[in-house]
Amino acid sequence: MSRVIWKGAISFGLVNIPVVLKPASRTHTLDLDMLDKRDMAPIGYQRINKHTGKPVESDDIVKGYAYEKDEYVVLSDEDFKQANVEATQTVDIVSFVDAASIPPYYFETPYYLEPDKRGERGYALLHETMRRTGRAALAMVVLRNRQHLAALLVSGKALVLNTMRFADEVLPIEDLALPKGGKQGASAREVDMAEKLVEDMTEDWAPEQYRDTYRDDLMAVIDAKIKSGNTHLLTPASEDTAPATKGAKVIDMMALLRDSLGKRGKPGKRAAEKGSEEATAAEEAPAKVSAKVSAKGSAKGPAKGAARKSAPSKAPAKKTVATKKPAARKAAAKQATAKQAAARKPTAKNAAAKKAPARKAA
């Protein structure tokens, strides 16, 4: 059961609602001790008296305000309380605002508010009123000797008090170098594709499915060291831990979004989205699409198949010529020469045709 941090009341106009404050968060950080690597001895932290150099017990430590150099006013716990008794005992609601209008960077630490004795009815009244109106209550509260701005929010059946930063503690957003549109801004097509990705990744709020996986991995390393007996072994730094730096390059945002949709979407949904993307591309650049189709068709057409079929028939012919003997080659060459000479030599019929005109003229 969580411990009670603070007891008091919510001041709601003239209504006082007794409540107790309990923590709404916890940490799972590993409890690591500082060691002397020479002998693995723990290194302790001590509060040292700066004049004597000797350690001081916690019971002998008090809080003091330096109004001049080396001159202090000592303040006890009762002094902090008596400074403003009402402020230290009440969550004083000063106004109500739209809960959605509070920027998230104002929030600090959440706490649960639980009704104390005789506070159930007032607690239920405030809770139901805030739930119906969708409002958050802004309040002032003193916790651990410091006054906080706080927001009371409805969460299920409970009221949550979230301490906030004051306006002068928040750095202005105007100091940031943010995109101003134009070349730095996103195009309409990129936004449409990003919306599809957001819809594809949208799911019900289930915080239990998320966990600190780095802590699990670190515990696995610790367990492996314990099992191997290397409880005092220091692991040297790896040379590959620092990522290699790369120069700036142009990012194809549309390609990244398409790849993301392809990996995240359901099979049927991916197919439908892919079809709509191809249809859009065809409308915008029909010439490119037809060129791709024709090139694809010619690459897979009959001509390519015919070339593949004719290739084996040429190989045996080359092999046959290569296996002919020198004598056969000479005979073939001699026969070809004889045929050429016969073609050049005039036949008897041609010679007679040439002589006939000469006889007639005589």
UniProtKB/TrEMBL annotation:
Please list every transmembrane segment annotated in the UniProt record, as residue ranges.
Answer: none
Matches recorded under InterPro entries: DNA_bd_Ku70/Ku80 (IPR006164), Prok_Ku (IPR009187), SPOC-like_C_dom_sf (IPR016194)
Entry keyword set: DNA damage, DNA recombination, DNA repair, DNA-binding
Judging by the UniProt lineage, the source's domain of life is Bacteria
Which residue ranges does the record assign to the Ku domain? 53-181
Specify where the region named Disordered lies, as residue ranges.
261-362
What does the annotation say about its assembly with partners? Homodimer. Interacts with LigD.
- Task of the protein: With LigD forms a non-homologous end joining (NHEJ) DNA repair enzyme, which repairs dsDNA breaks with reduced fidelity. Binds linear dsDNA with 5'- and 3'- overhangs but not closed circular dsDNA nor ssDNA. Recruits and stimulates the ligase activity of LigD.
Family under the similarity heading: Belongs to the prokaryotic Ku family.
The name under which this protein is listed is: Non-homologous end joining protein Ku
The organism of origin for this protein: Cupriavidus plantarum
